[in-house]
Prior knowledge:
The chain is of the alpha+beta class. It has one domain. Helices cover 21% and strands 26% of the residues. It has helices spanning 2-5, 51-59, 61-64, 67-70, and strands at 9-16, 42-48, 87-90, 93-99. The chain has a two-stranded antiparallel ribbon with strand order 1-2. It is flat, with a radius of gyration of 17 Å. It starts with a helix and ends with a strand.
Amino acid sequence: MSGLAETGLTELRTQTFMPWYEKLWDTPDVAHDNPKDQHFHASLILGFADKSARAAFFESPEVKSLSDPLASFASAVHAYDVSAALTYVKDARILPHYEE
């Protein structure tokens, strides 16, 4: 991540998901049976200190050069601002009240 640190990126998280299997997603009254071509397999979370750092990151030539190749690997990109991250579980224990 040393090269990314110079871009204004302050957080990088990745997560891969297990293949969809009905019994693993057995949630009453919630449909998870999306068509196979619409299953999510991973997520990538990027964090920035502020909006200008985020804009500079996405305007950089390095990131812009990834846009076209990314289309063959990603079916969707969703972006949204997060104002707070709340912790409900810490050290494998449910907290009596969330922490910021």
